[in-house]
Amino acid sequence: MLALVLMASEASGAAIECTVADPTGTPLNVRDAPNGRVVATLANGTRVRETEERHLNGKRWSAVSAKAGAIGWVFSAYLDCAAIIPDEQKSAPMRPRPTGN
């Protein structure tokens, strides 16, 4: 459908998992470029992964990929995102030091 290759821009290696949360209740347009031609839509609640971010005319756009294969650009304000830290970057759990009573 859309043969757009996107490169991740996260220097930390952490992925950004997002859920489509368009407040209008309509499907979210997926574009071939920030503010570009509409190539697909995503329903509210669809889980996507943000792979890149750009700013255009004061607005933030996210390059996303979904399990269904839709890849493209969406208006970032319509995503609810949370960073996911790979296991190898997580710190050890906190363990209190024993007190020497």
Provide a short characterization of the protein structure.
The chain has 101 residues and is mostly beta strands. It has no helices and 7 strands.
Describe this structure in words.
With about 100 residues, this protein is mostly beta strands. About 0% of the residues lie in helices and about 45% in strands. The protein is built from no helices and seven strands. The strands form two sheets. Strands 6-5-4-1-7 form a five-stranded antiparallel beta sheet, with no helix packed on it. Strands 2-3 form a two-stranded antiparallel sheet. The chain is elongated and about 65 Å long. About 20% of the residues are buried. Residues about 1-10 have low confidence and may be disordered.
Give the topology, please.
Layout: E1 15-20, E2 28-31, E3 38-42, E4 47-56, E5 59-66, E6 71-75, E7 79-84
Antiparallel strand pairs: 1-4, 1-7, 2-3, 4-5, 5-6
